[in-house]
Amino acid sequence: MAAATDIGIDLGTASILVYAKGKGIVLKEPSVVAYDKDSDKVKAIGEEARQMIGRTPGNIMAIRPLRQGVISDYVITEKMLRYFIQKSMGRRGFRKPRIVICVPSGVTDVERRAVEEATYQAGAREVTIVEEPIAAAIGAGIDITKPCGNMIVDIGGGTTDIAVISLGGIVVSSSIRIAGDNFNEAIIRYVRKNHGLFIGEQTAEAVKIKIGTAYQQPELMTMDIKGRNVVTGLPKTVTLTSEEIREALVDTVSQIVEAVHSVLEKTPPELAADVSERGIVLTGGGALLDGLEEVISERTGINTMTAENPASVVALGTGEYVEIMADFERR
Ligand SMILES: Nc1ncnc2c1ncn2[C@@H]1O[C@H](COP(=O)(O)OP(=O)(O)OP(=O)(O)O)[C@@H](O)[C@H]1O
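A: This is the predicted complex of the input protein with adenosine-5'-triphosphate.
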């Protein structure tokens, strides 16, 4: 019988979540590390490191060791994992945990092994790798062990994973490196081009959360933002509207929608029929962008809904994965 998981980790580009058996989600922090170039030392990890972004002296760099959902900086990732594992194990930390950790679907074997190795190095006794869409589906409450098609669209910070799942496995999938962070970049570009204003990532994120939308809304929302005038270099304030942000996001949103559409086109007919009956489920923090459900429903003709607490479902699913699969294999 497979061992039950001690902890499940959603190792995301934007954030890392840890699920502990019997406790639920015990940790949620940004996947950022503050690193001192001069002394070659890690200064802070997680929330503390995030506070340093854009405010660090020259010798301290705030780095996101995971770009697009896979490991780009192996050594730092391992340090970050070790810190979070210890933090979430608390006083039980004297025993090495069994860990289920997820990777985006479609990662290469080399990338998969890098995640596995980093997790062992960070102090795991046993490591199970699970693909993100499977974890997302479990976390969203879908019974993945039935011979029935379910479509999950997991929109994270760096990647969007689209998958049709049946009988515990992925039947068709696609992973595109376009997700929530690209919405921020699109907002930064738009504001520079149309308002002559430089804004940072944190401002763009705040705009996206407050007035960002993918769908035309009956009521216009506005937000004042501060930035630096492109020409004079001086501080300047402008007012943005939700309609402007919708325009700014159109291209990025449509790349996600088209990817969903093309996965549907490749789905075997019986499973496609299941999906159209059961609907498409959105997960991941990026799914919180207002109006995404409407745009996807309109383009595919399939009812689309967002999971409850979409940013937490992958972590929840990794925690439950081992037991569900063990039950399934025993049947
Ligand atoms: N209310 C919100 N509205 C729109 N976007 C949001 C909201 N809250 C969070 N996000 C976005 O969700 C994204 C992060 O999602 P999530 O935490 O699921 O990603 P991740 O798992 O770290 O990334 P990945 O799966 O790509 O590795 C970020 O781009 C963030 O800006």
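The chain has ten helices and 18 strands. The domain at 142-306 is CATH 3.30.420.40 (Nucleotidyltransferase; domain 5).
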